[in-house]
Design goal:
Layout (H helix, E strand, L loop, with lengths): L6 E4 L5 H12 L3 E6 L4 H13 L2 E6 L5 H15 L4 E4 L14 H29 L3 E6 L12 H21 L4 E8 L8 H4 L2 H10 L8 H12 L9 E5 L11
Parallel strand pairs: 1-2, 1-4, 2-3, 4-5, 5-6, 6-7
Helix pairs in contact: 1-2, 1-8, 3-4, 4-5
Bound molecules: beta-D-glucopyranose (BGC).
Beta-D-glucopyranose binds next to loops.
């Protein structure tokens, strides 16, 4: 198994890409920490799926926009599994507004969930790896929009652009300690974040047509790459981004 006994914290593990990451990692032997907000039962179904897949899991009440709660998730990995091997900064939200429409509240929420959580999660994970004196890996679920404008979704693009530089800079700062930071940039994935498009046949047709592979990704197609990156098979990768987008960013209108 590729991730036998590895302790992994996955923020936002309860839905979409995060859920599939937990299940795919568990199937390769990982032990997982996930977060829930207020209702422990929200994680019960997922913990069951993770256990069925062959891994272990524990849920922590945490608001991942609060640094102290991120620290609590990492401490839970240490208390439960004796260590931390991989942090997946996966939690993400959108607020589909243009620059002219965006509010202070919407901006702050998008930045807190997507960017601040990844920043402090990375800091705490790195401190834990240093304390353990082990190499470690931080994976950020970024987006093609870390480097590709999505008009009408500007706060999200700004946050993902920040994540791009988080991986670049933290990877350089931590390289001599054997700690690696890698971003994964999915394109359009069939998850709740895209429901407004997938539930509208006209819009879905337009989106599929813009993707060279002709369809959205399944969340498992992102999770499989996460498993590969978290395995010992990607040990020379850091400060970079792996794009998984069905070709969308290279698409052309074919005039
Ligand atoms: C966004 C989606 C968008 C996709 C491709 C993702 O990061 O969350 O809303 O469809 O990128 O543009």
């Amino acid at each position: 198994m590729l991730l036998e006994g590895k302790a992994m914290v996955v923020t936002g593990g309860n839905s979409g890409i995060g859920e599939q990451i937990c299940i795919a990692a568990a199937a390769e032997g990982a032990n997982i920490v996930i977060d829930y907000v207020a209702h422990p039962e929200a994680t019960n179904a997922l913990i069951e799926k993770i256990e069925q897949a062959g891994g272990k899991a524990v849920g922590v009440e945490a608001d991942i926009t609060k640094a102290a709660d991120l620290q609590k998730m990492i401490q839970t990995a240490v208390d439960t599994y004796g260590r931390l091997d991989v942090l997946v900064n996966n939690a993400g939200i959108e607020d589909r507004k243009s620059l002219l429409e965006e509010t202070e509240e919407g901006y702050e929420k998008v930045m807190a969930v997507n960017m601040k959580s990844a920043f402090f999660g990375t800091q705490f994970a790195a401190k834990q790896f240093i304390a353990q004196n082990t190499p470690g890996l931080i994976l950020n679920i970024s987006s093609v929009h870390e480097d590709w404008p999505m008009p009408g979704n500007i706060a999200y693009c700004v946050a993902k652009g920040g994540m791009r530089m988080l991986a670049r800079t933290a990877g350089v700062e931590l390289g001599d300690k054997g700690i690696r930071v890698v971003n994964i940039a999915p394109g359009a994935v069939d998850t709740p974040i895209n429901t407004s498009t997938t539930s509208n046949p006209e819009q879905l047709k337009k989106l599929d047509a813009a993707i060279p592979l002709g369809r959205l990704a399944k969340p498992s197609e992102i999770a499989d790459v996460v498993v590969f990156l978290a395995s010992g098979k990607a040990s020379y990768m850091t400060s970079t981004t792996v794009t998984i987008d069905g070709g969308i960013t290279q698409g052309s209108v074919g005039l």
